[in-house]
Specification:
397 residues
Length: 397
């Protein structure tokens, strides 16, 4: 059973402490510009500022368009009624899925004037948590848990619960922003009574315009990566694309040219269902996601080539000559695709026929000639792309 900690701060005190620490924070030190040249799309709402700042401090250009917004339900009559039901039922077990949800629930109970009663009710229950963050929120509230899911999945937490004889027991279930009928049914099928509580929910932004811009940027290959921190946001992202007839093009881009990164396997599941492979950190944490993105882009997505003008680097959409005074240039998708093909050929001549087959932007030799001209003009180092008469083009190495 869980036991209250007499020294625990109230939700209001915890919130005030956080605000004081935030006001006293010092400016973050400059970091190596490992993401310079890359464009990253951020779809999260909560903690998006932290994610955006981390990428920008490392040199990335960031586009932000929340796929879903988290809305606290503190003022909800339903939340108050559900909280009172749980208090009066003295649950045998409590399932806490998210730290954010537990904090909002405690704050709401304090607003309703029933936090001591809720604390007492939860103290008498055997509490299961989805992972370390939820455990931290439980302990901050002066409670303790009796186990956590090793893989941080709600279904695994329910497996732990169902290993016990819960027939005739009452289960308080803090929902993760939405009602999952299948999960509730699993508990009820074991003979238990389930009382759900939803301290927050997911809502669509007032307009789809910003999200549509990001979707179009992915389709046009104007982004190098899109990040996700919640499975409902993935569903919303793909759903908006479906609504506007862009899903097929979006999925195609995410399967080929634009990377996706997810904070964990649960978040990545809707991507996998769509045939999209996401980059996932070993630890399902925001900090680990940031490090994974940096490491992956730096080690797998920076093309380097020795040319007649020295070392050339392609970093995302940016091309630069580190040992030359020539400033970095940003290429549009078509010239960039051509340059990548020439770099990967490593000085070998690529015929016009080969390039026309590889480049979706070109449908004729005339279009290819114009594309080569655009690339040379953009690079400001025309000698790097060499024409081999009657044969094709190559990178001058």
């Amino acid at each position: 059973m869980s036991s209250p900690a007499s020294s625990a701060e109230s939700p209001q005190q915890l919130r005030q402490t956080s605000e004081i620490l935030s006001r006293g924070a010092v400016a973050a030190p400059l970091l190596p510009q490992t993401l310079s040249g890359f464009r990253i799309g951020v779809t999260s709402d909560r903690r998006s500022e932290e994610l955006i700042a981390a990428f920008q401090r490392r040199g990335a250009e960031v586009t932000h368009a929340p796929a879903l917004r988290i809305a606290s339900l503190t003022e909800s009559v339903t939340l108050q009624q559900d909280t009172n039901k749980i208090i009066s039922s003295s649950p045998d077990y409590a399932i806490i899925t998210t730290a954010y949800g537990m904090r909002r629930w405690a704050e709401a109970a304090e607003t309703y004037g029933v936090w001591p009663e809720l604390h007492e009710a939860l103290s008498g229950a055997s509490i299961l948590v989805r992972g370390p963050k939820a455990r931290g929120a439980i302990r901050a509230a002066g409670l303790d848990d009796d186990g956590a899911a090793e893989d941080e999945r709600t279904d695994t937490m329910l497996d732990m619960l169902l290993e016990k004889d819960i027939s005739g027991k009452t289960i308080a279930f803090q929902l993760h922003g939405m009602l999952n009928h299948q999960q509730v049914h699993r508990i009820e099928a074991a003979g238990a009574k389930v009382l759900t509580v939803m301290p927050y929910t997911w809502t669509k932004p007032a307009e789809d315009s910003e999200l549509l811009k990001m979707i179009s940027s992915v389709i046009d290959r104007q982004l190098d990566m899109v990040t996700f921190t919640a499975a409902p946001a993935v569903d919303a992202f793909l759903g908006v694309a479906q609504q506007y007839g862009k899903r097929e093009e979006l999925v195609s881009a995410l399967q080929s040219d634009v990377l996706t990164a997810a904070v964990g396997a649960v978040t990545a599941a809707p991507l996998a269902e769509a045939g999209i492979e996401a980059i996932i950190p070993e630890r399902w944490r925001l900090g680990a996601l940031i490090k994974k993105v940096c490491d992956h882009l730096e080690s797998h997505h920076i093309l380097k080539a020795e040319t007649v003008r020295g070392l050339m680097e392609i970093r995302g959409h940016q091309v630069r000559f580190p040992d030359s005074p020539t400033p970095p240039v940003r290429l549009s998708p078509a010239p960039l695709a051509l340059l990548r093909e020439l770099v990967m050929a490593d000085g070998t001549v690529l015929s016009r026929e080969e390039l026309l087959e590889k480049l979706p932007h070109c449908d004729s030799e005339r279009a290819l000639e114009m594309l080569v001209s655009r690339l040379r003009k953009s690079l400001q180092v025309p000698s790097v792309v060499q024409t081999v008469v009657k044969r094709g083009y190559k990178l001058a190495v």
